[in-house]
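Aim 2, interim progress. The first record below pairs a target sequence with its structure tokens.
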Amino acid sequence: MGTTTPPRTLAEALRARDDESLAGLLRARPDLLSPVPGDITQLATRAGTRASVVRALEHLDRFALQTAEALAVAPDPAPYGTLLGLLTGDGQDDGEQRDDAGAAITEALPGALGTLREQALVWGDDDRLRLVRTARELLSPSPQHPSPTGLGPTVAEATAGMSPGRLQEILAAAGLPATHDPVSAVTALTALFTDRARMGELLDTAPMEALAVLDRLVWGPPYGEVTPNPAPPVKWLRDRGLLLPVSTRTVVLPREAALHLRAGRAHRVPEPRPPVVAAVAERDPQAVDSAAAGQAFLAVSTVEELLKLWNGGGPVVLRAGGLSVRELRKTATALDVQEPVAAFWVELAYAAGLLASDGEADERYAPTPAYDEWLERSAQERWVALATAWLTATRTSGLVGGQDAKGRALSALGPDLDRSTAPEVRHRVLALLDSLPPGTAPDPETVLARLRWERPLRGAAAGDGTDLRSRIALWTLNESELLGITGRGALASQTRALLTGGPAEAAGLLAPLLPEPLDHVLLQADLTAVAPGPLERPLAEMLGALADIESKGGATVYRFTPGSVRRALDAGQTAADLHAFLATHSRTPVPQPLSYLIDDVARRHGHLRIGAASSYVRCDDEAVLGEILADKRSAALRLRRIAPTVLAALADPASLLDGLREMGYAPAAESADGDVLITRAGAHRTPPRSAPAPVPEGPPVPDTTLLGAAVRAIRAGDNAATVVKAQPDAGPAAPPGTLPRTTPAETLVTVQAAAMTGSTVWIGYVNAEGAASQRVIAPVRVEGGFVTAYDHTADEVRTYPLHRITGVAELAE
């Protein structure tokens, strides 16, 4: 510990640490830094608060937690040998514990104890180990909160308040000499239960039914209910103190008796070693990388297809936020995936900042300007952007379709989907996969077992009693396969590069594995076009406007229809443009039916003109307008002729356009000046929006610079609080923690002298809020009622008003 005398408090133990050790504590428990403690005493006090101790316990692995649990039921303080005995047992358990288990525990215990010491949960030398009081209270047994070890209270705790007469009856039944001192009686009974030979003799006389009762209680919970007239086996145990009363109907197996029955072990199965992640398959690493690259390309294409689907303005935002079940179902159908998978792609696009709500009065989801920038990148760079966003996102799409703590449904893109533990679990799962040889697919159950060992107390953080970490881990394995993080269950080389080398290295490894974009299609006589691979972006965009996708896969099939050709004409293309485009990009001759289709739709396109009257239809052919008026399907449009070549309608122009197109016409919209309006796809964008920030899990881990500054500030504050100060009148030294008191004149003279000599003084200071503190300063300049000095406590130069200084004293030699 670095001192000749053992520390008496946690503060003394922390004070004896070096700076590196203090920095390690603050790194492991960053909540202790908010705000920076004024001195070591404040640090120790904060480290012992319930919230901070609970957070520290939640970050312990299973064996470190088992070590803390053993200390909670051990004497306080406990020697190292006693702690080791509680974990290994006394070796007289009839072979229930394997021979190598004790060796593994002996080997792992120093490391677990070192972790507890580093996090200030345990302090003291090996011969006097102390668990901090709050942790002992959290891990100690009680009827309301049974101990994790399954042990009950000690004999002394269970017999507190018991009448001396009842104690004499127990001693007599157990064959112990009578004593009128209750303390001696408790000591005698405790000595009996901790003596293996005498305890064995006592249990040899017990009925078999009584031993069966002990077997049910020995590993916990140690409490049981009894009737006013218990059965003979229970009465036999109660008479001899093996069951002690807690209330009129409850008895408990005392800790000393339970430890005898357990052969001295605090835990049934100590777990000093983490479970090994087992492999289920060994695959060719190149095949893994190729499979992952194919899935990565599909992931990029799916996100692009989703955002094209919402290009002109997507689904309406629910009043409570998020996407409705109906819209999610429509999106899943359009993407040809299941609804949970569709929710994953939607959430991924949102996490990457490619999708957001537009903020209008009729709020809808739409792509963001960042989507256009994303489209300009190469396929490998787009995948890296998606994978990076997924790794750091706290939004958890696996929760979609479930319910929150209040029973409300959780919707995609809605609130309450953030789980701060998600990024840590994802990184940990991928780290476990990275630890396996290339091409190795892990057994998911062993991955979950490893995660439960590493954070045994963090399983029920979902709020619904389920193991949230395990659920996120399973979702991680599934989402990794969807996103191309893994291929055939094994981690891909490009993902290993992303985790260790960075985005540029990952993109470089992925690029050769992706297919090269094509600049041609194959036109067929049945009004379809086949793209035998991914297309170059201009070709894909133009073909997407001219034809509808009929099927996807290794090759994409497009179908030309009158509606799709009209869509291209609405976007400003002419029939000649379409003929030239197809002739340029087709490796096969343009089929005659396709040429006829384009010419036929183009001939009728724009023959009718739609404007705003509310709206109107004008056409040079009066017969066509007469045909429209005579058609019963136009009744809903409420048309009337206002001129030989003009019809007026009460419907708005957009509804009039859709209505006439449904009747088989090909009208075109026009402006107030009579010019044809050209509609272009993908015009709707949200204002510039940043990607949603991940919800942090507690305070962030401080960097090295911040840790160093915090340690220096704590040391300086501790020096100011604990060093012996000399009063200016040469009187007795001021006790630690008291503020100096001097007159204003004495204060001014002392700080002026310190500024002239460059010495360091101790001051008491009251800030504008009335908070008093003590500081160690080196005055530099005194003028205008202010003293400018280097503050050792804050490790910076500060200026203090002299009227707020309560007093000043020189530091004792």
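The second target in this work package is listed in the same format:
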Amino acid sequence: MTMAITMRAAGLATAGLALALTPVLAREPEAPQRQAQTDPALRMASALVARMTLAEKLPQLLNVAPAIPRLDVPAYNWWTESLHGALGARNTTNFPEPIGLAASFDAPLVHDVAGAIGTEVRALHTLARQTGRVGHIGTGLDTWSPNINIFRDPRWGRGQETYGEDPFLTATMGVAFVRGMQGPNPDRPQVIATPKHFAVHSGPEGTRHEANVFISAHDLEDTYLPAFRAAIVEGRAGSVMCAYNRIDGQPACASDLLLKEHLRGAWGFSGYVVSDCDAVKDIADNHKYAPDGATAVAAAMRAGVDSECNNATLGDTAGLEDRYSEALRRNLITEGDIDRTLVRLFAARYRNGDLPGLAGAPAAVPVSAIAAPAHRALALAAAERSMVLLKNDGALPLRAGTKVAVIGPLGDATRVLRGNYSSGLSGPPVSVLDGLRATLGASQVTLVPFGESLTDGDRVPTAVLQTPDGKPGLLARYYNPATPLPAFYAPGTREKTVAAVKYQTEPVATRIEPDVGDRNLDLARVADVHRTIWTGFLVPADTGSYRVGLSGAGGTLELDGRVLSDRRKARWNDLAGMTTVKLTAGRRYAIKAEGSGIDLVWKRVSDAPAAELKRAAAEADVLVAVVGLTSDLEAEETGVTVPGFAGGDKTTLDLPADQLAMLDQARATGKPIVLVAMNGSPINLAWAKANAAAVLEAWYPGETGGLAAANILTGRTNPSGRLPLTFYRSVADLPPFGDYAMTGRTYRYFTGTPVYPFGYGLSYTHFTYGPLTVTPARGGAEAGLRVTTRLTNTGDRAGEDVAQLYLTFPDRPGMPRVALRGFQRVALRPGEARTVAFDLSPRDLSSVATDGARSVAAGSYRVTVGGGQPGTAPGSTAIFTARQSQELPK
């Protein structure tokens, strides 16, 4: 930390104290008021807000905005999630985790995926209108996606949600997602996109609510802000979510640097800002930047936050608006501040069509659009393009007739496919086992059950569940609270759980459900907080040992009258509570599950996995080892502390010890090993690189991921993904996790030797690159240039290559070793050649000085175009010179 940063942090802390003591002074009207005469959405919103009473205004500042019947304003909940699939009351399409989408290096694909998700988000809104459940999470016409934080350290549990470690790749994918989600007209968005978390937010999870991140001006401009700038300036995102952490002493949701200087100042943002959930509360409670809740909400509002997400809204919102009333009473904010904020929020609801009357607003989407067959086909294509072939000694593709033994804890797993920010409500999941049986034939593929593992826990399928009267599924009874919730969730008593609520003795709804899971949003009579009791039977198809239990929180499970899982004190994302039991094929085991927010999960396990592996290997030609992690281990702020993981983050890059032991046992059989890795972050693949015959990185690939993997393993699909991350050997190769300086991190600044480098990926065919032609713009290279090359498929099968353009900059302090500045996915038939052209703007050519100034620096540049980083794949290089420096705006 430099002295300049120290003094700046001290100054900001003093400013926070002054805010607590100084009344608000009159300020000039801001953009919404000035633009109201020309922007019809702002004009309509201004007119609506002018008719509202103060008592009606204040609750609208929270993510749960209640209805205003007097003004015909329906309830609205700004909390909608659709990171890689819409989350709601129906089975929606689950696409690959964003880190997998990043590995596609295919911006048009990400655009199309986001468009499909947006269609399903609008269809869920239609469903909520039909059932009267507007105001519930997952029913709004905005979404808190994409996550465009930089995945700077492989330990971060939420890195799976991002588009990787490179600012250019992240910016390009982020813009594609925003444009796909919002549609062709950002002034009339089909769904408002919300890039998050602004900014400098990428772990550790355990300290995110109080972390004070000191960051250099160079790293801020060079690494952490480019993707957000692109999403706002190029993508025209309608919303932004501010982060939990502090930046140089100021909370991100009260940051002058981020929200005023960059967002609304340099970038001209006119949309609305939403806080991460409890981030405004953290301003006082954890950061101690403000002395109390009233001052905290004032600090956020005066910095530019428009909508506060508060986790208390998961129970009841009673009293949450009192902090704003107190801030008004103490002159920390004015009613004009509130009006300005509400105009932004209501203008958004007019623009996306939630409120009627604005010409050109998007039309409603029918419920039938949810999980459309075309979306499932797109999910399969996305999964195939996301997977990265890292090694192949000739074992792949698997030929017809090959006998395969599937080993490892994830071979038959389906929960792992979904990644995080997903629910069990998706299309039918396809495991790697299922995919291989579909492509090679069931008789050619044998499963070797694994022993008990941290990765256990797949949703129990409907096929093995029976209602009390013998129908598929379980009988579900829904009970509403007997007393209005404010009696249980009054201010000051929010720590009480849903378990404390007294429920009615008679169900308000009864129906057959396919499994244990929340599917009640299409039942108008069921309250948001409710109790569900599922009853029926578990009827296994095979005799053996099973791990059975519940995931989620707030429920219990009984099997034949024995309590197997009690989740009433668990956190929502703790590891599943499971018990190993012996089950007999065809026998009916009575089930009773009770609660909400839970899933019934199980996993077939072996009592002697090493012996079973040895027997299966003797009859197999190839062992397909499906190993890795799950998004229950690497995750968002959990209470999980087990070897290798703490609070959602990783403490090692190694696979779990039981998986490493299994791989050694597999190697001892002498049969070739094809390793398929499922994970959302870099893991140490040194063992696989040295010992496996082939390695396929599959990520968390979505509902059709097992079929996508099988299509690649069997050669039906040519592998074409590229790593969006550096795969290191050990955390010992990296700076401390809590250090946000970029020195020694990512391919741009890491000087060591990775196991596999950023941009790397193999194919079943071969590509060559011709010499580069560099054509400067009329004003010289500093004004932009075009780079062209000839790409040829010299192999014997069709395939796609990802042509990547890298720059090496003139030598000056702070320059990256090399930096991605362009990429194109190109499909070629055997022997086909195509000219590939890259047009580089001054911003593409720019770099950042140590003081944070961005410019096209004068001097000599090296440009390389190839199938990976310079020196790691076939490619060509040229040199060009910028004659004079050119400064660029923030």
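The two ends are 23 Å apart (CA to CA). This observation will shape the mutagenesis plan for the next reporting period.
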